[in-house]
Amino acid sequence: MHTSMLNTIAQLYGEYWDGGDDDVSQVIGTSLEPRGMDLLFQHFSLTRCGAGHLVLDIGCRDGRYAIEITRRHGCRTVGIDPVPRNIELAGERIRQENMTYLVSAMEGSVEDLPFEDESIDHIWCRDTLNHVELEPAMRESARVLKPGGWMLVYQTFAGDHLEPLEADRIFKALAIVERSMDSVTFERVSEQHGLRPELRDVIASEWRERAIEDGDDSISQDLLELGRMRRNEREMAERIGRERYEAELAVRLWGIYQLLGKLQPVSYLLRKPPDSSAEAERPE
Fold first, then answer.
1. Least confident of 1-15, 24-38, 152-166
2. What is the CATH number of domain 34-271?
C-alpha cells in the first residue's frame, strides 16, 4: 500500500477518531443558533403594512400565509393559486378562521394577474417562482404593485453543490423551470422590471437545522423513506407509477439538499420605486 495512504489511515484512526478529541466534537456539535420560519414575517414587517393596505399572496396554497399576514397587520389579503384544489382548501381555512371579511382566495396565475395596474400595496410570494417563467411573473408583479410597494419573495435556488444529473431529476419531477432556479437570473429579471432588491437574506440550511434542533424528525423520516425507495425502486415505480415515484423521491430530497447546500433558500424584499413626489423609505 502506498505510504501516503498508510499515513492517512493512521491519521484517521490514530489521531482524528481515537475518541479523545473533545474539542472537535464541541465545535461541530454546537448549535449555530439557526433562525426559524418566522423570519419571513419579520422581513415582511419592514414593509410597514397596515390597515387599509391590500396584500396579494401569489401561490397562496391553503391560505395559511394570507390569513397570518392579515392577522399580524390588519390588512386585506387576497390569494391567488393556479390549482383549483388549493383554492378550495384556502376557502375552507378562511371560513374556519372567521376571516372572510378580510381574506379571500381566487384561481389565477402570476403570469397573468387578474388585477388592475398599481392596485396592490404589497406582495407576498413564497415557493412559487420555481414553477414559472420569471419574465412574465416579474413583469406582472411590477405592473400590479403600487409605486413604493414591496414584494417579499422566498425562493429556493440551485446551490453550488447541486450536480447536473441531480438537478435534472428533481426539476423534472417537481415541475420546476430550470432558468428560474438561478439567483443571478432572478435578480436581473427583477431589476429589469423595476423591482430592486433592498434586502437579500440567504437562509441556506438554517430552517432545516432549526427544525432538527427543535425535535422535528421529518428529515430522519425522509432519509428512511429514501432508503426504501432506492432499494425497492422497480416495484414501487410499478405500483404507484414512475412519475409519482419521481415526485415523491424529489420532495424527500428537497430538504436534505438544502442541508447539504445543493439547494439554497433565499428571502428577498424587492421594491418598486415610489413616485418622485413620495418620500422614499428603506427598511430599517
1. 1-15
2. 3.40.50.150
